[in-house]
Amino acid sequence: MLIETRAILLDMDGTLVQSTAAVELVWGIWCQRHGVPLDAVLSICHGIRSEDTIAQVAPHLDMAAELLALNQLEFEHAMQGSAIVAGADLFLGALVGQPWAVVTSASRRVALERLAICGLPLPDVLVGSDDVSAGKPDPQPYRLGAERLGMAAQDCLAFEDAPAGVQSALDAGCQVIQIGTGSAFDPRVRAVVPNWSQLSLKAADGQLLVELPAHS
């Protein structure tokens, strides 16, 4: 299968970087401080901004103070169990000189730290949780990512691993490839692949060509 696009938009956690251990550690510390059941947080936090999680599980808390504390915890524990999703480094290497951006629900500070710790290239364009007024699954993050690349969202291919991110990218107008196992979160997803090792990228005449296995 060959998918054509003009630009690439990439989620980070779970898509480029396997950071589940770090995320669960940070939320575990936060939940212990506030007496919030960790299971309640882990059932909703994947792929969405910290503030959107807090708003659901502890709306009575001071949001600004909690975000500051969480951001610091995430920064301190950014390297805890973080590893590259297989093949992500090679795919990003092939993107050098091409239009691409990271669109993440992490803060800009945490995202840059986590990418650097994993030795991945830092993007010229990064949309973090602090760049938008509405996070995933709202389409605003992916619309902003495309805009900052000077592209229409319809000309971008997004890579995502979470239902909220898939919805955000699709509703923005992007094509979407889902990273992970199992079935697609949405019938509009172009393909589902377990990791990056089965993907290849070529550039030709202003287009990016992403090649996937036929069964994806």
From TrEMBL:
The lineage of its organism: Bacteria, Pseudomonadati, Pseudomonadota, Gammaproteobacteria, Pseudomonadales. InterPro entries: HAD-like_sf, HAD-like_SPP, HAD-SF_hydro_IA, HAD_sf, PGP-like_dom2. It holds the Pfam family Hydrolase. This is Haloacid dehalogenase. It comes from Pseudomonas nitroreducens. NCBIfam families: HAD-SF-IA-v3. One of its GO terms (molecular function) is sugar-phosphatase activity. PANTHER family: FRUCTOSE-1-PHOSPHATE PHOSPHATASE, GLYCEROL-1-PHOSPHATE PHOSPHOHYDROLASE 1-RELATED.
